[in-house]
Amino acid sequence: MARGDKEKLKAERFLGLLKPIERELEVYGRRLTFHSEDALDAIQNAVLRAYRAFDRYHEDASFRAWMFRILTNEIFALNRKRGRIAKFEVAVDMENWQAIVERAHSEEYPYTAASMEDFSKILDEDLIKALEALNEVEKSVLLMKAVGGLRYREIAESLEIPLGSVMGYLFRARQKMRNALLRSQRRLEG
Amino acid sequence: MNCLEARKRMQLYLDSELEAETSFEIEKHLETCSECAAMFKSEQGFHQRVSGFLSKGERTPSLWESVESKLMPGRFRVGLKSIWPVAAAVLVVFLAVLWFQPKTETMELAAAAEESHRAYVHRVIGPDFDGPVPEKTARALEGKLDTAAFYCQPSAAGFVSRGKRVCHIDDVPAAVILGHCEGVPVSVMVFERNALERFPKTKRYVGSGESVVCSRAGSYQLAVRIVGKHLVCVIADLSRRRVEELALSVNDRT
Ligand SMILES: [Zn+2]
After folding, report:
1. Which residue of A134, B20, B201, B212 has the lowest C-beta tally within 10 Å?
2. A and B: number of Cβ contacts within 8 A
3. Model's pTM, two decimal places?
């Protein structure tokens, strides 16, 4: 087979896998970038990088998880270039993950009357504001779950963190969101 | 399974991460326990509301067309050939603009201040301490930044400090005072004056003779001023006049 044909087949196979998840990748990218204008750069870089590495991609792995991983790395790198502070914040959390997980699994699983409230009336703008309370990694884990529909194991591989810390981050991200939403609900009522 | 065991597995259950057998156990419990059932239902409603919102969004056709076109080698080559004259023309215009408008360069500090302030506004960072500088911090900064920098804050009415922290901009330490004014977050970043050597563009602006130099920093307004031995930057989403006032109200405490 001519080299050009082989390249064309590769591109077609790649696009066949990419197309069904383009919308999800874009939504994820736009929500996770510190500066929204970075999302387009990150997506473009990630796709080109993935394509170059496509020969090393194995059929049995999840393409979705693989793409999310590459895109996440691009976004973290861009966010980092923009602000050194975000990196510091993440480093601190990585040290504390064990404590987070332990708290998440402790006997006092903090479900009180507060979590019984009706969340169906939450406004979108309150959700946007609540999302700002999360740090980069918490946001990434929550978005991989919500937007990409990834399993815990896939998220762990994407971020190269232990499975337990995925649970911890996800738990904490939701807890922070919940608290922020309860605050804005109370403000509306009060 | 009892209530506690069921509740401990609530997140895993709702994320479909449990073995079928354990999920079944939980469902059996929920059938007989109305309290847990209500709690799971509420939590599920919360998950759905959050996920539904976060996963909303359209695919931008033009973005993906442009990305995809870069993959197809044939199309890429043709595309490059046809855009080459256009690209060359764009480059010429771009270089000409650069050549004739040297003033469009921005202060390095504007970008750095914007980063730091945005992180504060979005609550990525917050104050580390309030009141006197902790001994550990002072020791870490010895020879690089004197503790007086943490007291270079605006005295203008309306400014309220929430606390302080250290931040590094290109390895240059700054005392950062995080506060607010008229309900809007304000960051005050204080460097040693000689930090200007590290920021030549900023130095040129500050050395122009004005007592305060103002600039846009992304969506914020920035004012930079030399106060005694320090370089003070005030940044906020306030009017230029207000930010300038805040910078002018910083007193020399050294
Ligand atoms: Zn129960």
Report:
1. B20
2. 130
3. 0.56
